[in-house]
UniProtKB/TrEMBL annotation:
<keyword id="KW-0460">Magnesium</keyword>
<keyword id="KW-0597">Phosphoprotein</keyword>
<keyword id="KW-1015">Disulfide bond</keyword>
<feature type="signal peptide">
    <location>
        <begin position="1"/>
        <end position="23"/>
    </location>
</feature>
<keyword id="KW-0464">Manganese</keyword>
<keyword id="KW-0479">Metal-binding</keyword>
<keyword id="KW-0547">Nucleotide-binding</keyword>
<feature type="transmembrane region" description="Helical">
    <location>
        <begin position="273"/>
        <end position="298"/>
    </location>
</feature>
<keyword id="KW-0418">Kinase</keyword>
<keyword id="KW-0732">Signal</keyword>
<dbReference type="GO" id="GO:0035295">
    <property type="term" value="P:tube development"/>
</dbReference>
<protein>
    <recommendedName>
        <fullName>Serine/threonine-protein kinase receptor</fullName>
        <ecNumber>2.7.11.30</ecNumber>
    </recommendedName>
</protein>
<keyword id="KW-0341">Growth regulation</keyword>
<comment type="similarity">
    <text>Belongs to the protein kinase superfamily. TKL Ser/Thr protein kinase family. TGFB receptor subfamily.</text>
</comment>
<dbReference type="GO" id="GO:0030154">
    <property type="term" value="P:cell differentiation"/>
</dbReference>
<keyword id="KW-0221">Differentiation</keyword>
<keyword id="KW-0067">ATP-binding</keyword>
Length: 663
């Protein structure tokens, strides 16, 4: 079944189409010259960005214009420049500004305000871009950071102290009407609610979490929402939260349940000056402190013991000692919502069931009324599945994992009362890719959108750099299948279910790797995984096994594309869905008979599908080393769509020519 082998055929056709065909079609029209660089930090000042891109390209197609795509992710700004065919969508958006001589970066998709893009006509007109101010009129100020990127300063509510009638239950809106750009890029948004005998107030500020705030270190500053945590031991009733999204300190999430006492916090939050100035209380304070000290020692011992057992005992809401901070890896940067501070979530229907957990659609309430809510997904694990929850939570907690093609994580919760652990994520109403393909036939554009975005998600997971160039720990998924891919509203994919994933940091010993075992779903397992013959000392082999599974998903997507004129009913790779395929029967098919899903003859009817078939075959090669990388598949998608565009132009031209000849 190894059909259309060789990169040769694809590349030759591609080169022919890109150079020969277009030159023949447009012998004299001048081609644009555009800046053409992979994603890189842009030099942005005020409302102008300049790319330091030293690659100028003569565009392959005479109709091409120049384009730039600007995005910000975790506060970093990146720009990609290239040629663009204006008859095609750019990132799924049809551009209407290509006649402009300036490239004016604007948000083109309201659902994605962090992406701006522009097209323009003129020699290297995408070298300098104008940035329209965001709709909220906030000033766009971009600061350089160490790796040459630009971190946007956060926008936060910033009113210092104002009185409030919020009574620390449910969700409160801050009384502050001022949004400020924080002074430093490292600052996050913070809110403090406090009540003394006279009044209640809310304080809204920007603050750098590297420094204590009111004597405390903030540990929840990676959160996207401001989840209020109660501090005991203050003279006033005192709640605090921090978060790292624009104006996230405006909506404050409280709970009705009062927090347990947290003696570990008390000593650190008492201003020492009180101890000396209130002389009559001194003796009582000494007694109290010694009691606290004993308790603290006891607690530290418990903490150490439970950590060595691999269990995190509940730590003080937002206070950590310096020691705790220094040994918390980035994987633990995201805080857990403890039982006392649960998000106001109303569960709805079940939308998925997995090996260890079930997923519910749910409403995250946004305001005092029931009408205002955000749809989220809640993955619920029974207490017995603590290890799966913890693995997935740790994978998600790495801030560098964030990517548009990876399911967006919101927070994790320990729902003690129900004896369940939760992971709260974005909700995607189109459901998983398998359901989607069962119900929909797709066209060529959708095939590219689904397939390329899947490859981008896997490439990001495997990469040791973020899109912005920051270092990141490569991750392998180990259970890639169409049921573990969600379809977003723009028909791009995002990967989900990281319960079997592994972080490939250098700290993993060969023994740990060896013990990681044969995991995944038999139907999608690479031959070397089925045989338990992976080269466990080489982290690349885990990625190669993921690429094999991804190729089967790409095949599933392609099998539902009508562009070649022939679509069959959805079937998963290797036969009917209801058939339970065990490892042994898969070994017979995949290893002994070297069987792969069928590539129908009709797939050769369409240039793009034909080229994609060759790519898929290179990804399911029996030899793991011979497989393409996920990043290479991303690039192939770019080349294949160009080839398709050129073949359409070429077909149109020959139809016109034959029409002229007949006249
Ligand atoms: N099924 C599993 N996870 C889901 C999610 N986040 N959104 C929609 N359906 C899902």
């Amino acid at each position: 079944m190894e059909r259309f082998r060789s990169v040769g055929l694809g590349s030759v056709l591609l080169v022919y189409l890109m150079s020969g065909a277009s030159a023949l079609l447009h012998p004299s029209s001048p081609k644009s010259v555009c800046k053409s660089c992979d994603p890189q930090p842009a030099n942005c000042k005020s409302n102008q960005c300049i790319v330091n891109c030293d690659v100028s390209k003569v565009c392959p197609n005479p109709d091409d214009v120049c384009a730039a795509v600007w995005w910000r992710e975790n506060g970093l700004v990146t720009v990609r420049t290239n040629c663009h065919n204006p008859t095609q969508p750019l990132n799924g958006v049809r551009m209407d500004d290509y006649n402009s001589s300036d490239c004016v970066l604007e948000v083109r998709n309201v659902n994605n305000p962090n992406v701006r893009q522009c097209t323009c006509t003129g020699h290297e007109c995408n070298e300098r871009m104008l940035v329209n101010k965001p709709d909220d009129n906030s000033e766009l100020v971009i600061m350089p950071v160490s790796e040459g990127g630009f971190r946007l300063r956060q926008l936060c509510r910033f009113c210092d102290i104002e009185s409030t009638d919020c009574n620390a239950t449910g969700v409160c809106k801050s009384p502050c009407n001022l949004t400020s750009i924080c002074e430093k890029p490292s600052e996050v948004c913070v809110s403090v609610w406090r009540r003394n005998k006279v009044s209640a107030t809310i304080e809204t500020v920007c603050h750098d979490p590297a420094f204590p705030f009111r004597g405390q270190y903030l540990t929840d500053y990676n959160n996207t929402v401001c989840q209020m945590k109660r501090l005991k031991g203050m003279e006033d009733d005192f709640y605090i939260c921090s978060c790292n999204q624009e104006e996230c300190n405006d909506q404050l999430y409280f709970t009705n349940v009062s927090a347990p006492s947290c003696p570990g916090c008390i000593g650190k939050t008492f201003p020492p000056v009180l101890l000396v100035s209130v002389v009559p209380l001194l003796i009582a304070a000494v007694l109290l402190l010694s009691t606290f000290y004993c308790y603290h020692l006891f607690r530290q011992q418990n903490l150490k013991a439970s950590r060595t057992k691999g269990i995190d005992i509940e730590t003080c809401a937002i206070i950590m000692s310096d020691d705790d901070r220094s040994d918390s890896s980035s994987a633990n940067a995201n805080s857990l919502n403890h039982n006392t501070e649960l998000l106001p979530i109303q569960l709805d229907v079940i939308v998925g069931k997995g090996r260890f957990a079930e997923v519910h659609r749910a409403k995250l309430k946004q305001g005092a009324t029931d009408e205002s809510f955000q749809m989220v997904a809640v993955k619920m694990f029974p207490y017995e599945e603590y290890a799966s929850w913890k693995t997935e939570w740790e994978i998600f907690s790495d801030a560098e994992l964030r990517h548009e093609n990876v399911l967006q994580f919101l927070t994790a919760e320990d729902r003690k009362a129900e004896r369940r652990y939760w992971l709260i994520t974005a909700y995607h109403e189109r459901g998983n890719l398998q359901e989607f393909l069962t119900q929909h036939v797709i066209g060529w554009d959708e095939l590219c959108q689904l397939g390329a975005s899947l490859a981008r998600g896997v490439a990001h997971l495997h990469s040791d750099r973020t899109t912005c160039g920051r270092p990141k720990v490569p991750i392998v998924h180990r259970d890639i299948k169409s049921a573990n891919v969600l379809v977003k509203s723009d028909l791009s994919c995002c990967l989900c279910d990281f319960g079997l994933s592994l972080r490939l940091d250098n700290s993993m010993s060969p023994e740990e790797l060896a013990n990681s075992g044969q995991v995944g779903t038999a139907r999608y397992m690479a031959p070397e995984v089925l045989e338990s013959r992976m080269d466990l000392e080489n982290i690349e082999s885990f990625k190669q096994a993921d690429v094999y599974s991804m190729s089967l998903v790409l095949w599933e997507i392609t099998s539902r594309c009508s562009a070649n004129g022939d679509v069959r009913e959805y079937e998963p790779p290797f036969g009917k869905l209801k058939d339970h395929l065990c490892v042994e029967s898969m070994k017979d098919d995949v290893i002994r008979d070297r069987l792969r899903p069928e590539i129908a003859a009709s797939w050769a009817n369409h240039v793009g599908i034909q080229l994609l078939s060759s790519t898929i075959e290179e990804c399911w090669d029996h030899d793991p080393e011979a497989r393409l990388t996920a990043q290479c598949v991303v690039e192939r998608f770019g080349e294949i769509s160009n080839a398709v565009i050129l073949s359409i132009i070429s077909d149109t031209k020959s139809t016109q020519d034959s029409g002229n000849d007949e006249k």
